[in-house]
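agent> fetching stored inputs for the zinc ion docking request
agent> found them:
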Amino acid sequence: MSDLVSIFLQLLLFKLVAPVTFRHHRYDDLVRTLYKVHNECPHVTRVYSIGRSVKGRHLYVLEFSDYPGIHEPLEPEVKYVGNMHGNEVLGRELLLQLSEFLCEEFRNRNQRIVRLVEGTRIHILPSMNPDGYEVAAAAQDRDISGYLVGRNNANGVDLNRNFPDLNTYIYYNEKNGGPNHHLPLPDNWKNQVEPETQAVIQWIRSLNFVLSANLHGGAVVANYPYDKSLEHRVRGFRRTANTPTPDDTLFQKLAKVYSYAHGWMHQGWNCGDYFPDGITNGASWYSLSKGMQDFNYLHTNCFEITLELSCDKFPRQEELQREWLGNREALIQFLEQVHQGIKGMVRDENYNNLVDAVISVSGINHDVTSGDHGDYFRLLLPGTYTVTATAPKFDPETVSVTVGPGEPKLVNFQLKRSTPPAAPKRRGPNSGHRGRVLPKKVQPRAARKKEMMMKQSQRVPA
Ligand SMILES: [Zn+2]
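agent> prediction call returned; pasting tokens
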């Protein structure tokens, strides 16, 4: 089939299934759209705010889940963040389109979308910088061009240079030993960051995110960590150098899933740049300190990549439909990537859930921890791995696991208390960042499901 016919058919199909309007959404319009989607799909969505911008605008998130507002054990949390740079607006519009699409297709019983929404908790923050957006949009209306107008927040700060720098610590630890994950925040971190950054940090600490993408513009490429090079500045100059994480092959695959499902990103030549496969290590492109993507990886269990989605940071309204068609499949496939590797429960002998237990994979110097419900998620490429679960006062347990290309493999751990009772508290190099393991009473899944079904049936459609 010729490309032209295929595009025509796609457009036709699209018109039939998702009658959405393509326009730029100012703040009030964005809020209305989020609530509109929620009203159309009240049982599988929730709108919540993670905080406010400098000018007091809410940072609204739209959540998709079969139990909105509830973490179901073994169901991973995933997020999209758009418009962190206020003048890079395509991500914001694509996330609104995605929200309408997920809702429509869920209502149409599209099996792929139903499975995604029922098996995943998806959080969509269309704009992390609503104040910057308003400045950029107003400039656009008055035809004031300027590459950077509206990029920063209302205090003039670039939010993607505003997260605590944990790279310096990890590069030190890689050489000298020390924690390889969940690096602690500086004591006075709240005074060092902007309100939008603080809201996002509190958000990503409160939910056990597994996978994320952060949507930007100004290039077309999928960018993966690290963003900061090992020697960020040498005699005043920023040093560009490939700076891989211990999960480099996995990150490359995640980036490629996006670039190859995207209409043209994978071709590599875009906006006058060339990136093989349409992907790049952040630091090998240009070194950036205090970015959000590295912070996610170093402070939480979340694997985040940065998607640069358009040459023009503020594309004309007429471009939005083509952009949506170019990104739609990629946005869905990337969400589906959260279902790979291994996951499971970490419990003690009495089936109490162990929170903050550490899951290490031999050969990958980056651990993950179990969340508040005792469940953990470890994204891995297909292969055979030696995996160890540890928790203070418990004996470690090691298993060999073969991971296939499909669904994640379920690997539960049941740790035995160490005997004799553990010596005075000392944290090993791999212990969780909060250094504690809290047993939690397990509520049998069936009973919990039933309880939630009851809640669900009592809900009144809005
Ligand atoms: Zn940007």
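agent> quick read of the result: The pocket of zinc ion is lined by residues 85, 88, 160, 216 (CB under 6 Å).
agent> awaiting further instructions
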